[in-house]
Structures are given as C-alpha cells and as structure tokens.
Write a structure and sequence with these properties.
- It is a single chain.
- The chain has seven helices and two strands; from the N terminus they run αααααββαα.
- It is mainly alpha-helical.
- Strand 1 and strand 2 (136-140) form a beta hairpin.
- The protein is elongated, with a radius of gyration of 24 Å.
- Keywords: Membrane, Transmembrane, Transmembrane helix.
Length: 174
C-alpha cells in the first residue's frame, strides 16, 4: 500500500521530487514561491508525510507468521489492519508487545532445560511451529497446543537453534 502512496507521490512531478522550494537568486529569501513548477504544494507535503508515516509503521510491526491456509490478500489485509490500529492507538501496540515479551520470557524459562531462549518463545508465540501430516501443514502450534501434544507424547520437542530462527527472513516488499 505504501508503494502505491510512494508511486502516486513521485508521479506528481515530472522532474522529480524536491525537498524544499527553489528560490531564484534575484528574489528575496522571505518571498513566497510564485513558480508552481518549482514549489512544493500542500498536498505534496501531506502525501510525503503520510507515505513516510505509513512506511515506517509498516516496517516497524512484525506480525505473526501466517497460517498455511491464508491467502496473500488475507495476510496483507491483516497487516494493513494492524498498521491502521498502530496509527490510531499506538499504546495498544506497546501493550501487545509487552504482553508478548512477558509470555516469551515465561516460555524460555519453562523450556530452558531443552535449550530454549526468549527467541524461541517469540517464535512459538508468532506461530512458528506447525503440525505437518507428511508434506501438508495442518495447523499452527501455539504454545498451549504444543505443550498438550508434548505431554500426550504425540510429537517430539522441536529442535531448532536460535541462529536458525534469527536467520529467517523478516522482510517483505517494503
């Protein structure tokens, strides 16, 4: 979405984007810009601000790993909803992050004997572990379901290093 904002913003000027209005040397510096081809308009400033805010918010948020059955449209729509929520009520995102941080610490302490760190806890909370039936992913194993299947002896404990988790891509188009 921010790519669309950026393309719209860049298409507004044929010669390119300029950071400040250009003033001619024979004009006093406190004069207003009369040549609209060399000035930033209010809409240009608003669009550049909106594009910057949206892009920064989009990049700062790391949503959960999508379920195997989710389409690219559902994933983008969910992420767009989170970005809108972050723009309207950023304190909710801080609360959400604190809650995940505390839960990941708890998971790291519970499974410390098996080599888990806080990174493993975050990965588990994000839906990083999935139950597979051969080749097909069935569903995401959240921490409670993971513990339940471990206690019943239906799965073996996942063996993954912190480095393997940190190696996974966190990037997208932006």
């Amino acid at each position: 979405m921010s790519v669309a904002f950026a393309l719209y913003y860049l298409s507004r000027s044929i010669e390119g984007v300029e950071a400040l209005p250009l003033t001619k040397t024979d004009q006093p510096t406190n004069s207003t810009c009369n040549d609209l081809n060399n000035c930033r308009t209010t809409s240009d400033m608003v669009w550049s601000c909106l594009t910057t805010i949206f892009a920064c918010t989009w990049v700062a948020i790391h949503p959960n790993i999508p379920a195997p059955y989710e389409s690219w449209f559902e994933i983008g729509l969910r992420r767009f909803g989170i970005v809108i929520m972050a723009l309207i009520a950023p304190e909710l995102i801080i609360y959400w992050a604190m809650k995940q941080w505390l839960a990941s610490r708890r998971l790291a302490k519970e499974h410390h004997a098996k080599g888990w760190t806080q990174t493993h806890g975050f990965f588990s909370l994000m839906g990083g572990f999935m139950l597979f039936d051969g080749v097909k992913a069935l569903y995401t194993l959240l921490p409670d379901k993971l513990d339940e299947l471990l206690k019943n002896g239906k799965i073996i404990f996942p063996q993954i290093t912190k480095e393997d988790i940190e190696d996974k891509s966190k990037g997208d188009v932006i």
